[in-house]
Amino acid sequence: MLVVALAQVGLLLLVAAVFDGSTKRLFLDGQPDGSAPLVGTLQGDPPGPVAFGGNYDSTAGQSCFHGRLETVRLWSIARSEAELGAEMARELRGTET
Questions:
Q1: How far is CA 34 from CA 44, 50, 61, in A?
Q2: Which of the 8 DSSP states describes residue 12?
Q3: What's this model's pTM, rounded to 2 decimal places?
Q4: Which single residue of 1, 18, 86, 93 has CA 20 to 30 Å from 59?
C-alpha cells in the first residue's frame, strides 16, 4: 500500500498511483515519489469495495482521508510520468471517455 503523509493543512496536491503489472509507483505533483515491485493483477468487475481517499479492509473496517478530493481520474492503462504531468494541467469537461 502507498501512503502519503502531509503536515501542511490547505495544500493542494496531485497524487497519482500507477500499476503497470510489475511495479506500483507513486507520483506527487507529477514527480516520482516512490516505487515498489508488485506481482499480480488488479481485480476488476469489482470483487470488493473501491475507496478513494482511504482504504478498505474487511477485517479492520474503513480508514478515511480527512480532507477533500477535488478531482478523481481513473484510467484503464498505466500512465507514464510525462502523461501524468500533461494531465495535471488539463481541465476536465465531463465529456471524456
A1: 25, 22, 26
A2: -
A3: 0.65
A4: 18
